[in-house]
Amino acid sequence: xxxxxxxxxxxxxxxxxxxxxxxxxxxxxxxxxxxxxxxxxxxxxxxxxxxxxxxxxxxxxxxxxxxxxxxxxxxxxxxxxxxxxxxxxxxxxxxxxxxxxxxxxxxxxxxxxxxxxxxxxxxxxxxxxxxxxxxxxxxxxxxxxxxxxxxxxxxxxxxxxxxxxxxxxxxxxxxxxxxxxxxxxxxxxxxxxxxxxxxxxxxxxxxxxxxxxxxxxxxxxxxxxxxxxxxxxxxxxxxxxxxxxxxxxxxxxxxxxxxxxxxxxxxxxxxxxxxxxxxxxxxxxxxxxxxxxxxxxxxxxxxxxxxxxxxxxxxxxxxxxxxxxxxxxxxxxxxxxxxxxxxxxxxxxxxxxxxxxxxxxxxxxxxxxx
Length: 370
What we know:
By secondary structure, the protein is of the alpha/beta class. The protein folds into two domains: 60 residues; 302 residues, Alpha-Beta Barrel (TIM Barrel). 24% of the residues lie in helices and 25% in strands.
């Protein structure tokens, strides 16, 4: 049974609009938002595709600063992150809107929302971080919808979190322009980045975006930051699950990101505007995992299904089971205090502490009282 935590925020938590800095005025009088590759061109009173960035008083503003679609304490493995503080609790929150238009969105009620009433809770960065500290969360996840569109709010929360020893985790599709991307990831400690497919056709037809921009973000995070990151690909039958595409993706990951970036293949279920597709067969996930590992990726996982083998972490050198997982609950822990395999001494990639947390699979919604 899921329990609910209540946290009293006080009177400071007041949602408001803030001016942004990534935009410029065009010769025709419109204002272009330069946050993401969409480059929405707006006149006063108009909103971008994300719906939360708008043109007001001759500038681009964020309409959802300090407002959230909800808060919850989750296991960090749910993000999913399997190599970042395993077993610890994370305070998750998001806002509304998204800068992609994925037909299969699993969080469409929040990410596709154009109703500000969706944002029932509010919290200043200081109060949100205080709640995380007092509720025992080791980190804060910017999730549910893409945090790049609430860029200013996420960064302000991350700055306060850093001062209190709380880690920041971005769950993002990586669809963001270079300059704001640099500022955003400078304040993140870890990320799970959606690599939604490995074809321009899929990104253009199903997501309304471009694969090249996402690959550019992956290269940036790998080569220019110290952010620990993992990848997730939701496999949709007949759309992005062919062996040929999975082989191309695996080869690109190996050539450009290396073998130690964990890769999560997760199961699709019919949702939003893609109700005509069947759920992903477990066999498809297992095949995808096999293909990626055959190409040299060390840590490949299956998700949204019960698969003890696909959920566990194995030593790339001797194949000993290093971390046992039953959904989000950790079992066997075969690592020494330095994060090395007890059988052969191979060092596990990631941010691994001496021992793991004991949060387990609990998911606890947090009601932010006033």
